[in-house]
Design goal:
alpha+beta; Nucleotidyltransferase, domain 5; five-stranded mixed sheet; flat; binds zinc ion
Length: 326
């Protein structure tokens, strides 16, 4: 199925790009887009050019719509630089939703990383395929391998925390910029020595928000004695809750019995009570609640508490089963 629309779907991309066509089948959706302006700044010299050199089509996988594999086909323009002094003759227009040579859009890569953060690569690949994203577990790993931490040697305020990389197996020390909370370093292990080495290259730090681990405190004191150390709110609260739990554990008995709003001194005795059925309700159901009778007309006695196979009822039942099977 393919049809042409005059509607503008540019809200799906950005104000400079618009969707001019789409096609879909059972499993896939293809979106065709191109850019509105026909001029672009040269990435080398910055001069605007409107001289088209050529166009070509870039195909990228995009975030799925309705769990269909979604592909974005974009007509990309190549321009000729009009600056005679510039050594860049032909340049490609920049796409705001994917960097050059990317086979997936930025938003799809973000979705993939988000899902795989909580799953193995293999599990993430399977879950994503249900959502309509086709990616192998190797490709997910390659996405991870490309993540780079941009360290900032001039950073003045950092947060330091230990994190588990594989639940409870490998630990690392995460260091993030307190201003915008972006990760600037992930050090192996959570001991003081690796942190000390890193701190030596970051002497401008004057404030560290850290967790409770004293190993970090000693390392910071040694390398940056002037630095102020603060415990972040999360860890303060965690500390407080830990202490409160310990206090409660000592003060409180393991079981507390409350009856009618009063705490009982001893464990109350269990009262076994037969429940009486609601006669009105049973009548409304036309349910025959008369007690069962033995073949001789006498009332059958049920034992509804102790399910002992030696009771009269069970013995009788067993005998009648034997009789019937013969
Ligand atoms: Zn140029």
């Amino acid at each position: 199925m393919k049809y042409h629309e005059t509607q503008d779907y540019s809200f799906l991309l950005d104000q400079n790009h618009f969707i001019y066509d789409h096609s879909e089948d059972q499993k896939t959706l293809h979106i065709y887009a191109k850019s509105k302006p026909h001029s672009c700044k040269c990435p080398k010299c910055g001069k605007e050019s409107n001289v088209l050199h050529a166009t070509y089509q870039r195909t990228m996988q995009d975030t799925p719509i309705h769990c269909k594999q979604t592909y974005l086909h974009t007509n990309v323009y190549k321009y000729e630089c009009q600056n005679a002094d510039c050594n860049c003759k032909v340049f490609m227009e920049d796409l705001p939703f994917a960097k050059a040579s990317q086979v997936r859009t930025d938003s799809l890569n973000a979705l993939i990383l988000g899902v795989s953060m909580f799953l193995s690569n293999e599990g993430a690949s399977k879950v994503l395929s249900l959502l309509g994203v086709q990616i192998s577990n190797d490709s997910i790993q390659r996405l991870y391998d490309r993540i780079e931490f941009v360290d900032n040697p001039d950073v003045e305020a950092v947060g330091i925390d230990d994190v588990a990389i594989r639940k409870g197996q490998t630990y690392a020390t995460a260091i993030y910029d307190l201003k915008d909370h972006h990760l600037i370093a992930l050090l192996n292990g959570r001991d003081a020595d690796t942190l000390k080495e890193w701190l030596k290259g970051h002497k401008k730090i004057r404030l560290v928000a850290r967790d409770r681990a004293s190993a970090y405190a000693a390392a910071i004191n040694e390398i940056l004695p002037e630095c102020i150390q603060v415990a972040d709110r999360f860890h303060l609260l965690q500390n407080l809750l830990g202490y409160l739990k310990d206090i409660f554990k000592e003060e409180m008995p393991s079981n507390v019995y409350i009856r009618d709003g009063k705490i009982l001194d001893n464990k109350p005795e269990k009262v076994l009570q037969e429940k009486n059925p609601d006669e009105k309700h049973i009548a409304s159901l036309n349910y025959d609640n008369t007690l069962p009778k033995n073949p001789d007309g006498s009332q059958r006695i049920y034992d509804n508490k102790k399910h002992l196979l030696t009771t009269k009822q069970y013995v009788e039942q067993a005998e009648s089963r034997k009789k019937n099977s013969n």
